[in-house]
Amino acid sequence: MTPMTAGITPAGEGIEGVRWNILGQIYIPKQLSENSLSWHATFPPGTFVPPHIHPTQDEFLYILQGQLTAELDGQVSVAGPGDTIRLPMGQPHGLFNRSDADVKCLFWVSPARRLYDLFWALHNLGPQADPADVVAISAKHEVDFLPPPDAE
Fold this sequence. Notes:
- InterPro entries: Cupin_2 (IPR013096), Flavonoid_dioxygenase-like (IPR052538), RmlC-like_jellyroll (IPR014710), RmlC_Cupin_sf (IPR011051).
- The chain is mostly beta strands.
- The protein has one domain (20-146): Jelly Rolls, CATH 2.60.120.
- Helices cover 11% and strands 39% of the residues.
- The chain is built from 2 helices and 11 strands, in the order ββββββββββααβ.
- The strands form 2 sheets. A 6-stranded antiparallel beta sheet has the order 1-2-3-10-5-8, covered by helices on one side.
- The radius of gyration is 15 Å and the shape is globular.
């Protein structure tokens, strides 16, 4: 991985013009280094990231617009504009837009590990992607999805 360069990533743009469609959500990478990755995310109504674990990364979200429901290790909370969600490595979490408006937030993880490569692998699979494919691809990139509650 190349070292991070100094500069400004303009609003609405990603580093090197990158913009991912991740299962119906738009992710725009803002910064990448060995130590961290940050991205702007838009969650349309009804979209979500199912419960999963990052065994090698701490993850954070800063809510810019809307309300995002976070399931953190079995506890449900709602975060709104100005709130920060802290997700320690190894702790199960899921993120859900259960509102009727877009949620916009800034994510970052530390260290970056393989997440940038995971987003490229998931890019444009579409909202109807086979969950088994998403789980398998994610596991190869150090993100472990949890089985649905009825499968436990």
